[in-house]
Design a protein that fits this description.
Chain lengths: 550, 238
């Protein structure tokens, strides 16, 4: 494979494209609301109305406004249609015909079928986003590598292999200021240089796609919408640190993402973009999938390594860190899906471009999955430093049915609840941590005035209790006791002394647990105690927990 | 021999550089409570009882897995650590059915000794009283899940010393259990060599030799020690 061949593929692909493309969302959210049938209906209608020479329907990745699926967007007009049904399709296709000469055969809007609901692509939900990770999402066809190459794909890999030294690649990522998107926020460049500096011929790249936070679906969407972007990021990392084998650890609950990754790996291998001698260079890099079996704790990097090695997924004490001793005791670079998805644009557009986006310490953009009591459920990618308020009120459209937002939960079971009064906080790693929450992988659950915060804490504690691996005592036995205390508080049976005991346990579990899961398990309790103490007090005073004011 | 100089609880100590903080402390008579630690098998850092404070770091570290370093200043017994240890031991007592009065290991039990050492006078947490089985299908030994603390010493000793890997862990969180082979009754576990090392390694009465009654089981700690010496130093003691 040479650069010219890459250009040929891109040109050929562009030449094949019809003037009008109907993009049908084929990510898991829309598929579950029936988008595959819509796509088939488009194919049929286009053929029936004799438009095959000018119009094509394609299955694209996530169009982001997941609550309004199945979504369809016209290209180039960018008209957006929501909740499209197969019955509405013939009239939608007919509307593409020149109005002057509607062919007689075209079945127009049949009576009884409401015309498709128009979405507003100019809504703040779309216009205030800044797509970098999701720039191809909803535009390219994830199951066709040609589509990715036509959008400029694999150029960065070529550049990194042919025009840059491994040290320059690491240096470029370091200068960009990119930080790990899995939640910790560790500087990616530093991690890469640690692995690059380690001696030894055998090194590994691992992509952590074991996204398990309740309400989080960013990584799934990236994998389903633009799998090649992740592969390219991993291959660039392999070139930078000198690895020859990569693994994508993807959770078993994501069958569509697994399928698209399998297809993508196969296609990339066929074109010589993965495997031996990538771009006719000495770089060999293969990627294999490892499917998680449903344990949340396997998202913790040391447990993930154990799981890939075929052992029980239990966290190990760090140090040694995986960068030093990871898979089979070899230096291992573990990054999250979104981190790898950021790599190609940084190589293409330069570290300075990336460092120019975001805040002083948090660069670039972050993808959030908006869920809960919010009008626009879906995916948003915003520059770091945007306030939480802007995300939930302007992009998210606020609470539905005239409700008011009470709190926003970020970071899943490891994060905390941020009250409405503090939503003016800009989104970056440090600010969220100062509020007792974390950036996390990007789940954002919005709660309105009807939400009982003690029950929220109980929900997350139950999650942590069920997902504890059972290795260390504070997490295994502590979460059981904390869950019991929270249940008693919710039921109105608890005494003030038991709330004290809960606080004591939170402190102990936070500071003595072995891995991040245990250390952060008390966070939802601590943050609700910090900001919603009156709800706990009311539960104690009234015996039965009082419903919050409506 | 290259050594490191460090301070543990205000005491200036020199220790071989490849030692852990736990070994260094014990070598100088400083007691740090442990449960999952067993001389001669790998460390897992699971019980969190040996956590210590190191000056300059706000994280507590397991002394069994932390190497000594030059100039390190370690505190092993601050009021905060004492508090945490007491809570951890209480959590263990509340987790399963540790009834010393009917236990074979009464009086010779590491969990019992720990409770005394951390000054536990009562358990502040609600007892879970789980319904747990006892497996006496093996002809010589028995397994009582009620008394198991999931230290996994049996798992490691069987895998690393005996080389049989009969034991492992199934389930997760509070549902985790030690199992033999593929979760079969111990008596049906074909990989078991009946060597009894797991029984010697068990800190409580969870693994026991059949025929012993209350407080009758005493573990021969020397036995594992001499095995370890034979393996590691090639010195056989008779």
């Amino acid at each position: 494979m040479e650069l010219t061949e890459l250009h040929q593929i891109a040109e050929h692909e562009r030449a094949q494209q019809k003037p009008v493309r109907i993009r049908c969302c084929a990510a898991a959210g829309c598929v579950s609301s029936g988008s595959l049938a819509v796509k088939q209906a488009f194919d049929r209608a286009i053929a029936e109305q004799g438009l095959s020479d000018r119009v094509q329907a394609c299955s694209v990745g996530c169009l982001r406004l997941c609550c309004a699926g199945p979504l369809v967007q016209m290209d180039p007009s960018l008209e957006l249609y929501e909740e499209v049904t197969p019955e509405q399709v013939p009239s939608l296709v007919a509307s593409l015909l020149p109005a002057a000469a509607p062919p007689l055969s075209a079945p127009g809007a049949s009576p009884g079928i409401p015309s498709a609901k128009r979405g507003d692509p100019q809504a703040p939900f779309f216009t205030r986003q800044m797509p970098i990770v999701l720039e191809n999402s909803g535009i390219i066809e994830p199951e066709r590598i040609e589509s990715y190459i036509a959008a400029g794909g694999y150029r960065a890999l070529h550049h990194a292999i042919r025009e840059m030294s491994p040290a320059q690649v690491v240096e470029c990522i370091t200068r960009s200021g990119l930080r790990g998107r899995g939640g910790g926020g560790y500087p990616t460049g530093v991690k890469w240089s640690l692995v690059a500096k380690m001696p030894g011929q055998r090194k590994f790249i691992v992509c952590n796609a074991d996204e398990g936070d309740p309400g989080a679906f960013m990584d799934r969407s990236v994998l389903e919408s633009d799998p090649h972007r992740v592969l390219e990021g991993m291959a660039i990392a392999a070139c930078a640190v000198g690895a020859t084998q990569g693994y994508i650890y993807v959770r078993g609950e994501y069958p569509l993402a697994i399928h698209r990754l399998e297809v993508a790996i196969k296609q990339a291998k066929k074109l010589g973009l993965l495997g031996a001698g990538i771009f006719d260079s000495p770089l060999n890099f293969r990627i294999d999938l490892r499917i998680g079996a449903g344990a949340f704790v396997c998202g913790e990097e040391t447990a993930l390594i154990e799981s890939i090695e075929g052992r029980r997924g239990m966290p190990q004490v760090r140090p040694p860190y995986p960068a030093e001793k990871g898979l089979w005791d070899c230096p291992t670079l573990i990054n999250n899906v979104e981190t790898f998805a950021n790599i190609a644009p940084i190589i293409n557009k330069g570290a300075e471009w990336f460092a120019g986006i975001g805040t002083a310490k948090s660069k670039g953009t972050k993808v959030f999955a908006l869920a809960g009591k919010i009008r626009h459920t879906g995916l948003v990618e915003v520059p770091m430093g945007m306030t939480l308020n802007a995300i939930v009120e302007e992009l998210g459209g606020g609470a539905p049915n005239g409700g008011t937002i009470k709190a926003v939960q970020t970071g899943g079971p490891s994060g905390g609840c941020i009250p409405a009064s503090l939503l003016d906080t800009p989104v970056d790693y440090e600010s969220l941590q100062a509020l007792g929450s974390i950036m996390g992988s990007g789940g954002m659950i919005v709660m309105d005035q009807t939400t009982n915060m003690v029950e929220v804490a109980k929900f997350f504690m139950e999650f942590c209790m069920d997902e504890s691996c059972g290795k260390c005592i504070p997490c295994r036995a502590g979460t059981v006791q904390m869950y019991r205390l929270l249940s008693r508080i919710v039921a109105g049976d608890a005494s003030p002394a038991e709330v004290k005991q809960l606080e004591m346990l939170c402190d102990m579990v936070k500071h003595t647990s072995l891995c991040g899961l245990g250390q952060s398990a008390p966070n939802p309790v601590l943050s609700t105690l910090r900001y919603f103490r009156p709800e706990y007090d009311r539960a104690l005073k009234n015996g039965r927990i009082a419903l919050p004011l409506r | 021999m290259p050594v490191k100089t460090l301070t543990i609880d205000g005491q200036l100590i020199t220790s071989p550089r490849d030692q852990t903080v736990l070994d260094a402390a014990r070598g100088h008579g400083i007691k740090i409570p442990t449960l999952c630690h067993l001389d001669g098998v790998s460390e897992v850092g699971a019980c969190r009882l040996c956590l210590v404070e190191i000056a300059g770091s706000n994280k507590l570290v397991p002394s069994c897995l932390t190497q000594v370093a030059e100039g390190m200043n370690v505190t092993t017994n601050s009021p905060r650590l004492q508090d945490y240890r007491k809570m951890i031991v209480e959590l263990l007592f509340a987790e399963r059915n540790h009834v010393c009065s009917v236990c074979v290991a009464n009086g010779h039990c590491e969990l019992q000794e720990l409770a005394v050492a951390v000054g536990m006078d009562h358990v502040r947490f609600e007892y879970q009283f789980p319904q747990l089985p006892v497996d006496v299908s093996h002809d010589q030994f028995g397994l009582d899940h009620n008394r198991c603390v999931m230290c996994t010493r049996c798992v490691r000793v069987c895998d690393e010393i005996e080389g049989a890997h009969t034991w492992d862990v199934s389930g997760r969180g509070h549902n985790a259990r030690v199992i033999t082979d593929l979760n079969q009754p111990w008596g049906d576990a074909e990989s078991c060599t009946s060597c009894g090392k797991c029984v010697q390694a068990c800190p409580t009465g969870a693994l026991f030799r059949q025929g012993a009654t209350v407080a009758e089981m005493q573990k021969d700690k020397e036995k594992l020690g001499s095995l370890m010496q034979a393996r590691e130093k090639k010195q056989w003691v008779v």
